[in-house]
Target: Regulatory helix-turn-helix LysR family protein
Amino acid sequence: MELRHLRYFVTVVREGGFTRAAEKLHMAQPPLSRQIQQLEEQLGVVLLDRQSRPLQPTEAGRFFYEQALNVLERVAAVVAMTKRFGHVERRRFGIGFVGSTLYGALPNLFRRFRVAFPELMVELLELSSIE
Model:
């Protein structure tokens, strides 16, 4: 089983049928239908009630759909986090401040910034009020 099989199945369920799913996936309907049949054969269960319109997942299909969504979301998150590694050292952000702000809002602002943008290297530069 490959990730594309999960994407195919999720799209078929979301679109309620093979024709609309095939259009959304930019592929022909017969190969998409065959991929889902092969997935069902591999799993040994029927995932879709092909008699209903719009197409409905079976009980096993609903379970598989939820799990497939979780897997695809997790894979997307892992890919995004991994891509950040290549950008951490290249992206720097400098913040100039006067010393008196260390006792005010700056520490809290800095913490929130680090949570929102963990991929950035933040440089704090203490400056005089003239600078």
Remarks:
- The domain at 3-85 is CATH 1.10.10.10 (Arc Repressor Mutant, subunit A).
- The chain has five helices and four strands.
- The chain has a mean pLDDT of 85.
